[in-house]
């Protein structure tokens, strides 16, 4: 699909994001540049990176090599946990811009709340300031639970534009998705297909793939879209990159959405990363 035809979500700050993005976790170096550039050439414009992914340099280089104006892209990066104090956070955002060789970011997220350390409110105040300075257009969070969201909103009066969370058929996050929607926050999904191939082999998914003449990944990504979730799939494969954009020519029924929701598990996280306890530090 041509990028001009990818629908957008309107954010609570007036900016927009395409309804699907390209993830760059474990995509780095010169091979990473080639993979990201291939994704750009077939239509991706929302590129998701992070200081912790070590892919910011590759993202910036791919954007420059594409020959497409910077204004056509939506570039996201994320604040590492060890830099939650205000001055550190602002410097790390500047460092991300230097690595990307960009003048601004479209979206900057606090990567994890790290509530045991309890500095995420200070980090959020830094992002609010960075937005006022024009370093970033939209600000958001990642892996924040409802209590974390309410605390930063109460402290600053500013709601995140985006909350990027682990969401896939084994971990559907119904309550958190509703909490984000209630607060006017767009939900992004990392690991939207899960990790590994188990979810892609579920009979519920495979039956729908057969019905719609799609692959299992496309069924899951369409499920995200119909729940109002913005998926960020990662793929180094050009075929998968292309397939992941072919989502707007079919529609699942309400019963089919419910059937996929039923695949959720009590312990469905891919790596047991509970935001209330997870320590991001290497």
How does this structure look, described?
This is Aldo/keto reductase. There is one protein chain. With about 280 residues, the protein is an alpha/beta fold. About 40% of the residues lie in helices and about 15% in strands. An 8-stranded parallel beta sheet has the order 3-4-5-6-7-8-9-10. The radius of gyration is 18 Å and the shape is globular.
Brief summary:
With 282 residues, the protein is of the alpha/beta class. The chain has helices spanning 29-41, 56-66, 86-100, 120-133, 146-156, 174-182, 203-212, 216-226, 238-243, 254-261; strands spanning 8-10, 16-18, 22-23, 46-48, 74-79, 105-110, 136-142, 162-166, 186-190, 229-231. It has a single domain (3-195, 229-234), classed as TIM Barrel, CATH 3.20.20.100.
CATH superfamily: NADP-dependent oxidoreductase domain
CATH fold assignment: TIM Barrel
Mean pLDDT: 95
| SS field, number of helical segments | 10
Helicity range: 25-40%
Order of helices and strands: EEEHEHEHEHEHEHEHHEHH
CATH architecture: Alpha-Beta Barrel
Main beta sheet strand tally, sense and closure: 8 strands, parallel
The tally of beta strands, per DSSP, is 10
Q: Cα-atom Rg, whole angstroms?
A: 18 Å
Instruction: State the name of the first-level CATH class.
Output: Alpha Beta
Overall, the morphology is globular
Provide the spatial order of strands within the biggest beta sheet.
3-4-5-6-7-8-9-10
Tell me the fraction of residues in β-strands, as a range: 15-25%
Keywords: NADP, Oxidoreductase
Family: Belongs to the aldo/keto reductase family.
Protein name: Aldo/keto reductase
Domain NADP-dependent oxidoreductase: 20-263
